[in-house]
Amino acid sequence: MGNSFACWSVSSAPTTTTTAGSGRILREEPVSLHEQLYQWTARQGLDATRARRLRALSGVDDPPAEVWPALRRGTGALAAGLIGFGVILWVAANWDELGRGLRFGLLEALLAVSAIGAAARPAWRAPLSLLALLTLGGLLAYFGQTYQTGADPWQLFALWAALALPLVWAARSDLAWAPWTVVAATGISLWMHTFGGHAWHFTATTVPVHAIGFVAFGLLCVGMALRPGGDAQPWSWRVAVLLAVIAISGTALGGLFSRDVAPQYPLGLGVMAVGLVLAWRRAEVYALSALALAVDTLLVAGLARVVIEQWKVDIGGLLLLGLAACGLLAASVSLIMRRVCASGVHA
C-alpha cells in the first residue's frame, strides 16, 4: 500500500505541457472523478434528479468489483474451516466409543465427500479442496499412529504433499495452494532436521544437507511462481517465499552464532543475495522486501558478533549496531521504492 501511494504521488504530480501555437507552458493538475462530476453538473446546469442519475451512471458509489470474489473466497474458507473443526471436535468427543474401522470410515468418508463435492461444484471447489487437503492429513496421521509404521515425520509430510498435489492442482486456487505450500515447506524442514542428525547441527558435515534443503526451497518457490493461475493468485507463491526466507535465514543465523562461524552463514547469505538479485530483475516488491530484510538481518547479526568479540558490549558498540541497522534498512527501502516505481509496478 505504501509503495503504491509513493508511486502514485510521483506519477500524479502536476504535468507540464507546451502549446504548439504560443509556446506557453500550461500546468495540468489531476482531477478526481468526484470533482469532474461536480464540474460537469454545474457546467450543464443539471437539476438534482439528473445529477443523481449521472452519479449513478458514473459508478463512483459502486463497491469495488474485486471485493466480492475475495468475500466469497473468505466465506467459503471460513465455512470449510468451521465444518472441518466441527467434525474434529465431534470425532474427538466420541473417539473412545468408536472402533478402529469406524474411525477410518469417518475420515475416508469426509475425504471422499469433500473431493467429490469439489469436482461436482465449481463454485465450492476451493473451500472443499481445502477441506479434503486437511482431511487427508488427518487420515495419514491416524494411519501412522494406529499401525506405527516407523516412518519419519518428514515422510508423512512428503506423502501428504504428493497425494494432495493432484487435488490442489485441479482446484487452481490459492485457498488450496497456500496450505499445500506450508505442508511441503514443513516436509523440507523436517527432512533437513532428520538428515542433519535429528537436530539442528551447524557444522561443516551438515552443509550438504542444508544446501540440498535450500535448493528444495528454491524449487518450491519456482514451482509456485510457474503454477497455473499464479499471476492472478500470488499468495501461495508469497507464502513459499516467506517460508523459504525464514528457513534459510534461520539456518544461516544458527551457523553464525555457533562456537565458530559455520559455513551455513556465508551459504545462507549467498543464497539470499542471489534471490535478491533475481527479485530485483523482476521488480517483485514482496520478494524484494522479504529478501532485503533477511539480508539486512544477517549483515547486522554478523556485525554484532564482530562487535561482541572485539569490543565487548559497550555503548559505542551498541551505537554502531544501531546506526548500521538504520542505515541498511533506510538504504534497502529507498532502493526498493526506486526500483518498483521505475518499473511501474504497484504493490
UniProtKB/TrEMBL annotation:
Q: Where is the DUF2157 domain?
A: 39-177
What Pfam family is a match for this entry? DUF2157
Keywords, sorted A to Z: Membrane, Transmembrane, Transmembrane helix
Report the transmembrane regions from the record.
Answer: 77-95, 101-120, 127-147, 153-170, 177-195, 207-227, 239-257, 263-280, 287-308, 314-337
Quote the InterPro entries the UniProt record gives: DUF2157
Q: Which domain of life is it from?
A: Bacteria
Say yes or no: keyword Signal present: no
Can you say what this protein is called? DUF2157 domain-containing protein
Organism of origin: Roseateles aquatilis
Taxon lineage: Bacteria, Pseudomonadati, Pseudomonadota, Betaproteobacteria, Burkholderiales
